[in-house]
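Task 17 of the worksheet. Students: predict the tertiary structure of the chain below and write it out as structure tokens. Keep your answer in the requested format; marks are given for formatting as well as content.
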Amino acid sequence: MFTEVAPKKIDTTKEKVEQADQKLQALSAESRKAQFQADSLALARDLAQVGNVYRDVVKSENSIRQERIMHLRGQNCIGAALVADYMSLNMAVHAGSLKEQISLADRFLTRFPQYPCVVWCDLMKCGRLTQQEVNDYCDLMHSIFKKSPMSVAVLVAPYLVSEKVAGYRGELRRWEDKMDARGFKQHSIAIRCQPPNGRRKVPLHFDGWVVMMDLTAGDNVWSPSQLIQDRSNRNEIPWTPEGQYVVPVAQKDNLPHASEGMRSLSDVQECAQFLAGEALPCGLLSALLGRTEVPKQTDTCVLINLTAYDSWVERACKRFSDQTTIPIKFKTLSMSKTISTAEYVEKTLACELLEEWKRGNHKHLGQVRAYEPKPPASSATDVDPNQYPLKLIKLDYDPNPSLKGWNKFRISILPAVRARYIDDQVFGEDWSNILKDFDQKYSPKSNADATAALALVKKEEEDATKVIEPWTNEPETLEELMDKYIVEAKFPGRNHGSTMFLVQSKARDGSSHQIIQGQKYKLFVATRLVYHSFGCSPHKMFSYQC
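Model answer:
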């Protein structure tokens, strides 16, 4: 009986074993599939975690950048406050009517009664003068002389003849009669200029007067002045290039100049710039102070400019002691009848003082707080990769200080994880595709591409708050540009007084810097200092890649 039953039991056991093996294989395949899905999800989770790392890095960098921007804005506010306080005491600029100007001059002289006073009036800035304007200027000078009898006035005669006047001599005679009627003692002077470059048709001398009260002329400290004794300036005044001509406001009802080859300036605008620059006020003030006891008695003078226009007189007074051998400082009051002209003068002087403060030149501002271009230590901390738990991805951190932001991080998959499904017949191809896609975006082999892509995204986010640093070792004046580069072409710019220069990218000595691959030219823009002044340079250069 046993032999009959035994084979049947053995066959039944084989079937059960086969069924069990099939079930085990099925469970193993399902477990393998579940493991693959779990690893895929873990990889996706790690990538999402890496995205959080990038977000925190960008957030930290934005915080540092915002702190720097706010620091620079705070420094600008500090500098603006220092400049405003200095200008209110030493370089005041106002606009108003005749009565307002008389009141301003009276208050200004009341603040500095111990200093000698010089009145500056350049009538060439006024164009063709009406009878009312002539009376206003004479009344304003009379009120200043009444407040400070020992004052002196330097007048530059108008060049354009007014209506209903018998020629240029009639224009001069009209002014002389007005000054005689108010009790002024006048000394005629001739302002000599250097011959202009080229074939420019301009006069070589201009007329003017040195005026003081007739009653106090004998005791006036300015009577022995070299300018009065010589009746002229000894050093000729150089001509200012037309590229530096300034038109602070758009004059109304002025037709363009009709002369061929001239710039698009009206007769009034062109005449106002005949004696532009710092050479004229420095030359006349030096001659006025010569042979007098003023430099020995005091180190400060007061100057009231009745015809504020292009800020050259104020800048010359600010740098007078640097450009001449006379150690005199000036406190200036500039007045104009138009608000826009006064705003131009005030902004030009304020920008120049602010730039000097940023360069560390505190000669004029005195002992003030220094400019701090770099912000203090930032409160934002670097992102620590250990704070982000990762399972399959390795996030390395490079502490190299030359690397910034996201460039400090390197992303890679652990070697053991890479080899996990390489030989799998079912999931090997899918795993290879996942690794290939990861390597194209993040792996160290193609890390440069990934870094470039992230840098591009980062650059787009930074454009709104990017602080552009100036290029170094580039020309800042026209002379430096001509000496360093070979000019291929030049043509006028869009703005008045600006010129564009197209130069070769390599310097004359063969050196090349701040260029990109394949760059042949550089573009420089030389612009006249309208609202921005940079030291004593007549032009400021701005360079662009081309």
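Marker's comment: The first helix runs from residue 2 to 90. The mean pLDDT is 80.
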